[in-house]
Specification:
Elements (H helix, E strand, L loop, with lengths): L1 E5 L2 E3 L5 E8 L8 E6 L6 E6 L6 E3 L7 E6 L4 E6 L8 E7 L2 E2 L3 E5 L2
Parallel strand pairs: 2-11
Antiparallel strand pairs: 1-3, 3-8, 4-5, 4-9, 5-6, 7-8, 9-10, 9-11
């Protein structure tokens, strides 16, 4: 299993970023996927999840109505569209399937 995140970077408060996670080594179209994040000095926390079909989405309260998770089963990729970013969104964002995690991509929100 390989999960490779990309799309992180520096954003201003109120700005937007779109993260991607390219997956391989398993049957992607049958797998529920999720995003989590770990901020500086904090434990990793759940951000969002999407069912294998894409019909069900789940969000942490802290990101609801600002972040959107999606997937493209033809490309074996999930996405996390992040809008109205806040400094407290600063973290390393990682994607997950079952017990596997990607290496993460850094998101920094600062003016």
């Amino acid at each position: 299993v390989q999960l490779v995140e990309s799309g992180g970077g520096l954003a201003q408060p109120g700005g937007s970023l779109r993260l991607s996670c390219a997956a391989s080594g398993f049957t992607f179209s049958s797998a529920d996927m999720s995003w989590a994040r770990q901020g500086p000095g904090k434990e990793r926390e759940f951000v969002a999840a999407i069912s294998w079909s894409g019909r069900e989405e789940y969000y942490a309260d802290s990101v609801k109505d600002r972040f959107t998770i999606s997937r493209d089963n033809a490309k074996n990729t999930i996405y996390l569209a992040m809008n109205s970013l806040k400094p407290e969104d600063t973290a390393v964002y990682s994607c997950n399937v079952q017990f596997y995690w990607g290496q993460g991509t850094q998101v920094t929100v600062s003016s």
